[in-house]
Amino acid sequence: MDPLLALDAVSYRYPGRNTGLALDDVSFAVPPGGHVGIVGESGAGKSTVLRLLLGLAAPHTGSVSFDGAPLDLRDRAGMRRFRAAVQPVFQDPYSSLDPRQRVDRIVGEPLRSLAVASGAEASDRIEAALRDVGLDGDAGRRYPHEFSGGQRQRIAIARAVVSGPRVLIADEPVSALDLTTRVAVLELFERLAAEHGMTIVLVSHDLAVVARMCASTVVLRGGRVVESGTTGRVLAEPESAYTRALLDAVPRLPV
Q1: SS3 for the chain, per residue?
Q2: 66 HSE (CA, 13 A, CB side)
Q3: Angle separating helix axes 149-161 and 103-113, nearest 10 degrees
Q4: Which of 12-26, 105-119, 182-196 has the least mean pLDDT?
Q5: Which residues partner with 229 through β-bridges?
Q6: How far apart are the first and last CA of the chain?
Q7: How far is Cα 155 from Cα 229, in angstroms, rounded to an integer?
Q8: What average pLDDT does the chain have?
Q9: Which residues pair with 37 in a beta bridge?
């Protein structure tokens, strides 16, 4: 099966920094409908990988491809289609939502900015997205401060799915939530992925979350891939000493 999203021999250096490569010869592929976890300690390169996967930066060497074609950040129409198909869910449901805007406007922002839908069609899609994440009918008329942390993350997920994406890229999506709420949000991710056939790329320091959500795992250290494979194998029988140390060092909570 051809990958839906892939990094091929990617290297990246942040402009103006003399700290070496943020990523060095990184390659991995995400199959259609697959769930891939990316793990590693702080500074391993996870955030840089997400920037490249979201089309927010271009690699210095190597390529990032979507649906078999390299991303070209200069192709405005092509990138608009890409961003409608690949949407992020960020870590903090408190800071990722504009407190000055009503929820319906927040959720509908991708429809406007990506020219996906407008008018009555946009309103219908916003209402459907809010229902899809388990929020009631009047949620769109309220403001973020009127919701709990778990509900705010549901709003963020509704914003991500309203454009009908093929891929969700989730950066620590439950780390800011309490244990009971995180279970509910993970169940929501699983249901949405199953119902809509979405591909998921998940960054998490919590290996229990990765074990639950992801069929395969990529382990980063110092901007390089030190291990990758099925999640069951990587977590149960790691080949890299770094992966074994990561398993020993990172606290894991039940999910």
Answers
A1: CCCCEEEEEEEECCCCCCCCCCEEEEEEEECCCCEEEEECCCCCCHHHHHHHHCCCCCCCEEEEEECCEECCCCCHHHHHHHHHHEEEECCCCCCCCCCCCCHHHHHHHHHHHCCCCCHHHHHHHHHHHHHHCCCCCCHHHCCHHHCCHHHHHHHHHHHHHCCCCCEEEEECCCCCCCHHHHHHHHHHHHHHHHHHCCEEEEECCCHHHHHHHCCEEEEEECCEEEEEEEHHHHHHCCCCHHHHHHHHHCCCCCC
A2: 21
A3: 20
A4: 12-26
A5: 217
A6: 31
A7: 32
A8: 92
A9: 202, 217
Contact between residue 171 and residue 156 where contact means Cβ atoms under 8 Å apart: no
Domains for the chain: give ranges and CATH numbers. 5-249 (3.40.50.300)
Q: Is the pLDDT of residue 253 over 60?
A: no
The alpha carbons of the chain give a radius of gyration, in whole angstroms, of 18
Q: Residue 26 pLDDT more than 60?
A: yes
Query: Can you read off the two tokens belonging to residue 143?
Result: 């403001």
Can you give the pTM of this predicted structure?
0.90
Cα 220 to chain centroid distance, Å, stands at 16
Closest CA to 212 of 173, 167, 154: 173
Q: What residue has token string 């009908």?
A: 164
